[in-house]
Amino acid sequence: MRWIVGLGNPGPAYANTRHNAGFMVIDELARRFNTDVNQNKCKALIGEARVQTEKIALLKPMTFMNLSGESVRSFMDYYKVKLEDMIVIYDDLDTEVGHIRLRYQGSAGGHNGIKSIIQHTGTQTFNRIRMGVSRPKPGVVMADYVLSPFAKAEQAAVRKMIEEACDAVEHALFHSFEQTMAKFNTRAPGNQA
């Protein structure tokens, strides 16, 4: 089973915030795969789908961002799935709005959701799609910024970014993650790795 984990915070107050970019991708994948992400299990909302021969699970951890690893670990243990079959999707301050960046290892880079996943899986090696949210202007409090909605002027870029992340997930179902990185990372020139 392939499993796609979108990071975010539960509840309507956080629905369209920058920190919930991962949830936005899961919602769009659910639409594409014609499934609902509504099973409450493993501290997450889960949806299951089949894409050609692949069985897919879509996860939205309901633990709040800084405890995302609890849900990931619970799902791994319950379903006996492999870490290499997971893709984590999350917001990234060092990538511009509208761009995505794929990686298969690295530190948390200050992201509490990734920090929690590393802590609960014991490794920094897992597939990820980073969604660009850009850095705030000087003087803006980081926590306020990531918990704020995307600006109106950013909406078209955000929509494109979500579509591209979904395309990357679909590509990764039938190609290696290295091949997927080679295809999708070239689309965003000037992004930091």
From TrEMBL:
<dbReference type="InterPro" id="IPR001328">
    <property type="entry name" value="Pept_tRNA_hydro"/>
</dbReference>
<keyword id="KW-0820">tRNA-binding</keyword>
<feature type="binding site">
    <location>
        <position position="112"/>
    </location>
    <ligand>
        <name>tRNA</name>
    </ligand>
</feature>
<dbReference type="GO" id="GO:0016787">
    <property type="term" value="F:hydrolase activity"/>
</dbReference>
<keyword id="KW-0963">Cytoplasm</keyword>
<keyword id="KW-0378">Hydrolase</keyword>
<feature type="binding site">
    <location>
        <position position="66"/>
    </location>
    <ligand>
        <name>tRNA</name>
    </ligand>
</feature>
<keyword id="KW-0694">RNA-binding</keyword>
<comment type="function">
    <text>Catalyzes the release of premature peptidyl moieties from peptidyl-tRNA molecules trapped in stalled 50S ribosomal subunits, and thus maintains levels of free tRNAs and 50S ribosomes.</text>
</comment>
<dbReference type="Pfam" id="PF01195">
    <property type="entry name" value="Pept_tRNA_hydro"/>
</dbReference>
<protein>
    <recommendedName>
        <fullName>Peptidyl-tRNA hydrolase</fullName>
        <ecNumber>3.1.1.29</ecNumber>
    </recommendedName>
</protein>
<comment type="subunit">
    <text>Monomer.</text>
</comment>
<feature type="active site" description="Proton acceptor">
    <location>
        <position position="19"/>
    </location>
</feature>
<dbReference type="InterPro" id="IPR036416">
    <property type="entry name" value="Pept_tRNA_hydro_sf"/>
</dbReference>
<feature type="binding site">
    <location>
        <position position="64"/>
    </location>
    <ligand>
        <name>tRNA</name>
    </ligand>
</feature>
<feature type="site" description="Stabilizes the basic form of H active site to accept a proton">
    <location>
        <position position="91"/>
    </location>
</feature>
<feature type="site" description="Discriminates between blocked and unblocked aminoacyl-tRNA">
    <location>
        <position position="9"/>
    </location>
</feature>
<comment type="similarity">
    <text>Belongs to the PTH family.</text>
</comment>
<comment type="function">
    <text>Hydrolyzes ribosome-free peptidyl-tRNAs (with 1 or more amino acids incorporated), which drop off the ribosome during protein synthesis, or as a result of ribosome stalling.</text>
</comment>
<dbReference type="InterPro" id="IPR018171">
    <property type="entry name" value="Pept_tRNA_hydro_CS"/>
</dbReference>
<feature type="binding site">
    <location>
        <position position="14"/>
    </location>
    <ligand>
        <name>tRNA</name>
    </ligand>
</feature>
